[in-house]
Amino acid sequence: MRINCVSCGHKVDLDEAYDNYEGEVKCFACSAILEIKAVEANLRSVTLVRTAARRSSENSGK
Ligand SMILES: [Zn+2]
Predict the structure, then answer these.
(1) Lower Cβ count inside 10 Å, N or C end of the chain?
(2) Does a structural domain hold residue 16?
(3) Which positions ≥6 away from 19 have C-beta within 8 Å?
């Protein structure tokens, strides 16, 4: 099964262990954490949990 990283757009290959899976996977291209839900090798949802980019520029507010 293959998913598109919602952070960087990279195609992430997942093996059969993820055909029925709900939880987090890591994009090996950008290291973003994605939460996916797959049922019988059909991807039901992909949610970006967080990006791996540690940008100090996000220190805005507060
Ligand atoms: Zn990515």
Answers:
(1) C
(2) yes
(3) 1, 38, 40, 41
Domain membership flag for residue 57: no
Claim: this prediction has a pTM higher than 0.85: no
- The domain total for the chain is 1
| Residue 52 CA, ligand 1 centroid: distance in Å | 9
Q: What are the average pLDDT values for consecutive 10-residue runs of the chain, which has 62 residues?
A: 94 95 96 96 96 66 58
60 C-alpha to ligand 1 centroid (Å): 24
Tell me if 61 is assigned to some domain. no
